[in-house]
Amino acid sequence: MFHFSSLSALCLVATLVAAGPCDIYASGGTPCVAAHSTTRALFSAYSGSLYQIKRGSDGATTNISPLGAGGVANAATQDSFCDGTTCVITTIFDQTGRSNHLTQAPPGGAASGTDPNGFDNLAAADGAPVTLNGNKAYGVFIPPGTGYRNDATNGIAVGDAAEGMYAVFDGTHYNGNCCFDYGNAEPSVRDTGNGHMEAIYFGTGGPGGAGSGPWAGADLENGLFNGGNTAANPNSPSLTSRFVTAVVKGEPGTWAIRGGNAASGSLSTFFSGARPSGGYNPMHKEGALILGIGGDNSDRAQGTFYEGVMTSGYPSDATENSVQANIVAAGYAATALTSGPAIAVGSAVSFRATTACCATRYIAHTGATVSTQLVTPSSTQALKLSASWNVVTGLGNNACVSFESRDTPGSYIRHSNFQLFVNANDGSKLFSEDATWCPQAGLSGQGNSIRSWSYPAHYFRHFNGILYAASNGGPDSFDATWVFNDDVTWVVGPAFA
Ligand code: AHR
Ligand code: AHR
């Protein structure tokens, strides 16, 4: 028979073993009031939907759930639902039961996305594949112009009330624009003044810290902070690991920024102290939730989100340290960004179109313009060379590739305003990312579809003979859904010259 104390000890052990981040926050007296993740359940008992996807072929939606209670997302459901078409993430569900779901962000006071209605774009569902202890899952890859929001929340801190938050990001995906945020913002989607936001900001847009970034910081509205004021904070290290944990918390008078490597080790405190002067004390939090954008929908930033929560109350460092241990134990790891027939670095290739109109045409360039041309064995050497490309390690991500022109060494296929160009590498971060492509299995069932690393909803497409980085059903004429799969499917063969 069980002795009572050994039974409760057993239960305690089981609770500790199985606890998710939100179980840990609850034990610390600072419960989650929003919990978002496309990769895993954040409560040990959660088995509901993690996120919803919508596919391009017929507009149907489906929800992705964990493999089991407390488990990793069932990525196989997504893979089969999206097979042979494109998918976007429409909703990231709140796991707390408060319905603080994140959906497509509406237009606001600042720049909005390219959607005709001014809404931000939705993230491609397969832009951020990872594994968690070996199980495949997908994060939320957010290019500029993409964002999620909830302007009618339940239980999120307002005014000067205490709250905490953490998020797991990709330390290799960021920029210096406003604002790759996760956290508390204005339901009006307007900048309503200093102290009206309290969100994690990740990137190089703030005052910064040690090294060249990116840094974990905070967006408190009209101000990105890496410490207690608008100066650089030497105690804030560059967070360049593939997976990053970032933490922000605030209570009346004080706040803190913490962070670390989400795949190993512990959290460090980069700042803890007084609120900044100039309207940030007391705070005027308004309780909306944002992901990937600023409070006023400033949407020129980029980053990748895997999981994050908002709490009620100011979590202790010890509670957050336990959450970090849980994140590390989740076993985030990188996985292949490419699929389909291999396009080997070091080879030289040609790209043959597959649409019925055009199956003897190849990707070629005339100066900077990229188009399809009829190329045959009897074509001139000059035309053959213009249709031949060196495959090199991706300039912006070494898990993908870049295509260098064989007749113009040092020039690469890049997108700009979603048209393809052959341009000289100017050495900038933007160029390297615009010129990085992650080949996939061809969407029409043969060959490859050549997906942009920086905008994973966008693929090499020929449209009226010109090459674009097109998204299925997107806002531009070249995004038309008609023959999209054929137009983005290429047979990649040996170079002509
Ligand atoms: O605080 C930085 C940004 O400033 C906010 O995200 C935005 O609302 C404003 O443009
Ligand atoms: O092609 C989309 C974007 O347009 C590119 O990233 C940038 O170079 C240009 O603004």
Automatic annotation (TrEMBL):
Signal peptide positions on this chain: 1-19
Keywords of this entry: Carbohydrate metabolism, Disulfide bond, Glycoprotein, Glycosidase, Hydrolase, Polysaccharide degradation, Secreted, Signal, Xylan degradation
Classification via CDD domains: beta-trefoil_ABD_ABFB (cd23399)
Gene Ontology terms for molecular function: alpha-L-arabinofuranosidase activity
Active-site residues per Swiss-Prot or TrEMBL entry: E221, D296
Principal subcellular localization: secreted
EC number of the protein: 3.2.1.55
The protein's annotated pathway: Glycan metabolism; L-arabinan degradation
Gene Ontology biological-process entries: arabinan catabolic process; L-arabinose metabolic process; pectin catabolic process; xylan catabolic process
Localization in the cell: Secreted
SUPFAM superfamilies recorded: AbfB domain (SSF110221), Concanavalin A-like lectins/glucanases (SSF49899)
Keyword match Chloroplast: no
Pfam families, A to Z: AbfB (PF05270), ArabFuran-catal (PF09206)
All residue ranges annotated as the Alpha-L-arabinofuranosidase B catalytic domain in the record: 21-333
Reactions this protein catalyses: Hydrolysis of terminal non-reducing alpha-L-arabinofuranoside residues in alpha-L-arabinosides
Region entry Disordered, spans: 99-118
GO cellular component: extracellular region
Family in the record: Belongs to the glycosyl hydrolase 54 family.
Protein known as: Alpha-L-arabinofuranosidase
Species per Swiss-Prot/TrEMBL record: Mycena alexandri
Lineage of the organism: Eukaryota, Fungi, Dikarya, Basidiomycota, Agaricomycotina
